[in-house]
Design a protein that fits this description.
Strand order of the largest sheet: 4-3-2-7-8-11-9
CATH architecture of the largest domain: 3-Layer(aba) Sandwich
Helix content: 25-40%
Order of helices and strands: HHEHEHEHEHEEEHEHHEEEHHHH
CATH class of the largest domain: Alpha Beta
Number of helices: 13
CATH topology of the largest domain: Rossmann fold
Structural class: alpha/beta
């Protein structure tokens, strides 16, 4: 017998029902943006912010609202939140989305998260290091409405599994921002949209253009269009970090032009170019790719790139042109 799916309206009605007591009064939820209530909640759980886990909790409601608005959550959306913490963002996402999967590693924080999201039946908690989260295992056809599924090829001989569309919305730990981007953008089912809070300096590196491009910037711009939505001061968090933050939106390309193996070879070239940033590109590539300098010169010239330039001055299109030149030569 086929199990019927709940509509988004059913889910929201269920949230409202759980959030009310028997008399229809709204249950008393802790205001997680209120520092006094947040401190009391942490104290009740015998907890304090853990620097090792990068725990700086968002306490500015206007910033919280800006994150949710930027994600443009629709009633049928599925959302992945990594590093969910106290659930301050989780609850706001759950009020709009059909399903929210919240990932949290720290054991005590996970217990607190279970308490703060207990009135939201569309929230699922996963105890896991976010870098070991496999979106393909979490989001499958059984969990989503038909309109959230990208049609797969129906070619004979077995079609690839259907990809379920989801959004990643999170306040990322500063120490693993780059690794988090790489992990999810390179997955077999990357998010169609990322809206994340990151360190301001990192956000500016990600959106930088040729002349100031970094390896991180190339790695993310290759997959999508990053944009800084707003800057967030340190006092918007408890405890306040030493640096300001930024809300970053990345609209991910729906289809990749390169296969996984081709992407790996492409980024080997890019990494080689950035391996010695103070050196001219031909020297950095010679050292990083282990080819003769004369051959590197020939490849750069064929790709219409001045060998004396430096890696940070190349655009994504120029990196792709150089990579294709190398591919044609090596695999000829």
């Amino acid at each position: 017998m086929t199990e019927s799916k709940q509509s988004p309206d059913d889910v929201r009605e269920q949230i409202l029902r759980f959030a009310q007591d028997d008399r229809g009064n709204v249950r008393d939820e802790a205001d997680l943006t209120n520092v006094r209530e947040l401190r009391n909640l942490l104290y009740a759980h015998n907890m304090r912010p853990n620097k090792a886990f990068g725990q700086n909790f968002l306490i500015d409601r206007s910033v919280l609202q800006r994150i949710v608005d930027t994600a443009e959550i629709e009633p049928d959306d599925q959302v992945l939140e990594v590093g969910a913490g106290t659930g301050v963002l989780t609850r706001e996402l759950a009020k709009r989305a059909r399903r929210v999967v919240a990932v949290e590693l720290e054991r005590d924080m996970l217990k607190l998260l279970a308490e703060t999201t207990r009135y939201y039946p569309n929230v699922e908690l996963i105890a896991r290091d976010l870098l070991y989260v496999n979106p393909a295992e979490i989001f499958d056809q059984a969990h989503v409405p038909d309109k959230s599924i990208t049609s797969a090829s129906s070619s004979p001989g077995g079609a690839p599994p259907e990809r379920v569309l989801y959004k990643l919305v999170a306040n990322l730990p500063y120490s693993i921002t780059a690794a988090t981007f790489r992990h999810f953008l390179e997955s077999t089912n990357p998010p169609r949209l990322l809206v994340v809070m990151v360190q301001r300096e990192v956000a500016e590196r990600i959106v930088a253009g040729p002349g100031d491009l970094s390896l991180l910037g190339v790695s993310i711009q290759f997959y999508g269009r990053p944009k800084i939505v707003a800057y967030v001061p340190a006092h918007a968090f408890y405890p306040a970090p030493k640096v300001d933050s930024a809300i970053l939106r990345v609209d991910v390309q729906p289809q990749m032009s390169l296969t996984l193996e081709e992407r790996e070879r492409f980024f080997r070239v890019v990494q080689a170019g950035f391996s010695q940033r103070r050196k001219q590109l031909h020297n950095a590539l010679t050292h990083g790719l282990h080819y003769k300098n004369e051959l590197i010169h020939a490849w750069l010239s064929s790709a219409d790139i001045d060998p004396s330039r430096r890696a940070e001055t190349l655009s994504i299109e120029e990196w792709l042109r150089l990579w294709r030149t190398i591919e044609d030569s090596v695999h000829a």
